[in-house]
Design the sequence.
């Protein structure tokens, strides 16, 4: 199985420090590795050896440093320890004193050198000269291993016979590149909380049908994703047998691997000295050396030009639909709070935007499948980075590829205007009107469910944040998503650039309030009259008699003069489905519903005629001047 190098060590070498009593064979071990033969005569201390990356199993350049008590003091040792990544503590298996000194001298000394460190360096315990003894009592070794959890493993070797020399240095590299401590708690003999949480997430991502089990197909998908290979049936059955023999509930009656079995398998890897296998899996699913998500995993670079937007791609929408379906256990086309919590249990938390917009729900306020896709369409439009982070956390790369394929950048809005056609699927409509005009109701009627209805009375006072609702609408038979955003001016009829910027503006007035339309008229003339943004004026009668507006022009006259569509009627009792479809249509065809562009056409034509006239006049003048020059030249020749 292939292993991966952690990001912590990319671009730099691993430093291995060898310490131990005099004459235990530290220098011989180093020279036997380098020369591939045992030297009878060795110096007191070997010079620092650098092994190139291409000849190491982990493909990481490695520095090996020798320490000698006779030449160096404790201050030198402390300096070397601070710069080391991993320490090999060597003793002689035929020398009881050197073995006892592990506990009484060296381990306390190494800890003292790291008193200011946040984490102790991993230690590889090395028993040298094993060629001189048939067997060694492991009693003392086991006690030391238990007492000092920073000791990763014990290796018995022989510098003379070159036995386990390269393996020792492999263990040393592995100890720092694939450390056990973040994964396994030696004292409690269990996986660490962070490791268990990461593996639970990985299990749930791999459980594609969300039945709480990993069947053979899901196990092979996992194997291919992490190690780029297939599990033969014999090997797969062997793994299941090991789990079944050692973990009571590790294999289900249907012969699938349970979460308990999956966790046990990785604990077995770690205990068998194969932590690199678990690290390969964990890093493949976006974790760093601290078992936190890497930034690049959650936030790949996405370039978006000024006049472009970001939307879900077909792949992204399909994946999110699949997630909804597999977590909708009762198949009621809604996600209950329990089902929603289960879906987001593998994420850091729920998306913060989930509670900041309205979408379709059932009567209990549970999000429907249409509401689910509507929400993610809105989230992608306003915070594409958030969508990509959640696609990563939810396991998009396991089923497909990098989450960049889950979103798409639309072409520039300027090109849409030139082509007279929009390729976008999500549009923002800003709903603007004076207090009491009914803009809040207009936004909430855009969606269905108790969630929106419950909030109407709470928000009509205008003291709470602006309401945003999103739902799917039809535009010439195609599905589009329309985001209705309520805009409450910061001061009387004053809008910011962000308040004005949208795909279509919906200016609402209360037809039963005589002063309501004046606000709408001022907003249009001040902010939208000369902009390439379609505008629809909506008359909200609120079920009361229509009154004459206190403005120089009545709404119908104002719209006619400014070449706007006749005000659309809206009542609180109506669903307004046609109104929302019309708004989305206007947003998708801005050239058709933007009177400003048509007003420019005559001016543009006059400009062309005027420029053409000047050009003709200049040509005529040039012709006259040339004729006069020719006549003068002819006269001069005759004279």
Sequence:
């Amino acid at each position: 199985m292939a292993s991966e190098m952690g990001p912590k060590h990319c671009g730099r070498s691993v430093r291995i420090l060898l310490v131990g009593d005099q004459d235990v064979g530290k220098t011989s071990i180093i020279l036997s590795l380098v020369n591939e033969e045992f030297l009878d005569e060795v110096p007191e201390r070997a010079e620092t050896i650098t092994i190139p990356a291409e000849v190491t199993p982990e493909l990481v350049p490695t520095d090996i440093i020798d320490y000698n008590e006779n030449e160096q003091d404790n201050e030198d040792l402390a300096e070397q320890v601070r710069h080391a990544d991993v320490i090999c503590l060597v003793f002689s298996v035929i020398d009881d004193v050197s073995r006892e000194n592990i506990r009484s001298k060296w381990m306390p000394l190494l800890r003292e050198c790291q008193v200011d460190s946040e984490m102790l360096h991993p230690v590889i315990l090395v028993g040298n000269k094993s060629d001189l003894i048939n067997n060694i009592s492991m009693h003392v070794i086991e006690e030391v291993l238990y007492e000092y959890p920073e000791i990763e493993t014990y290796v018995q070797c022989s510098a003379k016979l070159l036995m386990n020399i390269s393996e020792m240095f492999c263990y040393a590299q592995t100890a720092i590149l694939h450390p056990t401590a973040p994964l396994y708690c030696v004292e409690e003999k269990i996986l660490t909380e962070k490791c268990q949480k990461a593996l639970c997430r990985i299990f749930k991502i791999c459980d594609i049908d969300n039945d709480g089990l990993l069947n053979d197909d899901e196990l092979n998908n996992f194997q291919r994703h992490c190690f780029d290979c297939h599990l033969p049936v014999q090997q797969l059955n062997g793994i299941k047998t090991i789990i079944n023999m050692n973990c009571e509930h590790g294999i289900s009656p249907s012969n699938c691997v349970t979460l308990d079995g999956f966790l046990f398998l990785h604990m077995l890897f770690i205990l068998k000295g194969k932590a690199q296998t678990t690290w390969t899996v964990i890093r493949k699913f976006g974790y760093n050396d601290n078992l936190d998500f890497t930034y690049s995993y959650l936030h790949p670079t996405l370039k978006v030009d000024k006049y472009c937007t970001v939307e879900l791609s077909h792949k992204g929408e399909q994946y999110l639909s699949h997630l909804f379906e597999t977590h909708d256990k009762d198949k009621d086309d809604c996600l209950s709070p329990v089902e929603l919590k289960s879906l987001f249990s593998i994420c850091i938390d729920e998306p913060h935007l989930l509670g900041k917009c309205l979408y379709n729900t059932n009567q209990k306020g549970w999000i429907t499948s249409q509401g689910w896709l509507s929400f993610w369409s809105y989230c992608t439009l306003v915070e594409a980075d958030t969508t990509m982070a959640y696609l990563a956390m939810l396991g998009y790369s396991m089923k497909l590829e990098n989450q960049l394929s889950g979103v798409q950048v639309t072409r520039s809005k300027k090109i849409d205007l030139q082509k007279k056609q929009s390729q976008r699927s999500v549009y923002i409509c800003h709903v603007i009107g004076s207090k009491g005009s009914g803009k809040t109701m207009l936004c909430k009627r855009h969606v269905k469910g108790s969630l929106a209805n419950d909030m109407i009375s709470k928000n009509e006072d205008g003291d709470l944040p602006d309401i945003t609702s999103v739902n799917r609408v039809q535009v010439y038979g195609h599905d589009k998503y329309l985001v209705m955003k309520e805009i409450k001016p910061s001061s009387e009829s004053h809008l910011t650039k962000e308040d004005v910027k949208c795909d279509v503006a919906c200016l609402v007035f209360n037809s039963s309030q005589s002063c309501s339309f004046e606000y709408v008229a001022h907003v249009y003339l001040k902010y939208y009259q000369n902009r390439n943004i379609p505008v629809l004026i909506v008359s909200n009668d609120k079920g009361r008699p229509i009154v004459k507006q206190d403005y120089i022009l009545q709404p119908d006259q104002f719209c006619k003069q400014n070449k706007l569509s006749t005000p659309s009627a809206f009542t609180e009792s109506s669903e307004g489905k046609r109104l929302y479809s019309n708004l989305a249509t206007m947003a998708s065809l801005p050239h058709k519903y933007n009177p400003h562009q048509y007003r420019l056409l005559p001016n543009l034509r006059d400009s062309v005629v005027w420029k053409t006239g000047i050009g003709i006049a200049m040509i005529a003048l040039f012709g006259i001047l040339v004729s006069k020059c020719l006549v003068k030249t002819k006269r001069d020749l005759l004279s």
